[in-house]
Amino acid sequence: MLIGNETSLLLKDLEENGDYVNSQEFPSLIKASIVNESLDKNILVIDLRSSKQFSEGHIKGAVNKKFEELPGYFETGIKPFEYDKIIMVCEDGQASSYTTSLLRLMGYGNVYSMRWGMSAWNNKYAQDGWLKGVSGKYEANLENKVNERPSLIGMPELKTGMTSGEEIGATRFRKLFEEGIRNILITADEVLSNPQIYYIINLERKDKYEDGHIPGAVRYKPEGTLGFTGEMASIPTDKTVVVYCGTGHNSGFATAYLRLFGYDARTLKYGNNSFMYDKMVRQRTALSWLPFTTADVNNFVVVK
Asked: What's the predicted TM-score (pTM) here?
């Protein structure tokens, strides 16, 4: 099993600085209702959507920032720890989950992602977002067999040229923000049309996995994979890795961690909601699924 020196140093540095991905704070999600109740308190809402979307309507007091601008903004634009909470917002909660994960790993421990994104804020956004994204079209494609993991091969080799975990992390974070968020999401149509070309990670409970999953998907424990070389070293380094969970939020956080370590990881947009929605609704109580419904939509005010 090959674990390069830079990888080992970065793993050690992240572990010594709180081991965020294995802490009770992971994943750092916050409900829209809590954000709405806190608008007159010491919080900062950062809206990651396009300037056009932002100008057409946003949460009162929110600032509009591009993903690529965030490291500089956190370093010189604001004093992050003067806020009780900094809340990242996007269309559906998945890009903001990815972003929040990176910022938390960088040491900003007061950053949260708003669950369901703007779809939870107001029905206008839900109609164009989550309510349009849910689908049961691939339910008949699911399989129940347990797919075994490949043998341990190692992790991607990081080549930053840095000699300390802190420097290696800073270099990797800088690169990920420069790359943007264009390639962090993948759709159910893309994956289900040709699942064998991907390495598909199911990040769910065992009973949910065994009740039906994407063909070829391999289950990894949500709470016992990230940061453990004996788990991550079984993930192929020569394939696009698709991570999925029930909603795309948890997988967004996990995808950020995997990309930090050099994997070509993507999060499945809308998670299980995007391909087995009707099954989730039927089994909501039995398997504790989280299908997005109109009950998750609020009628909070937006400003222009």
From this structure: 0.97
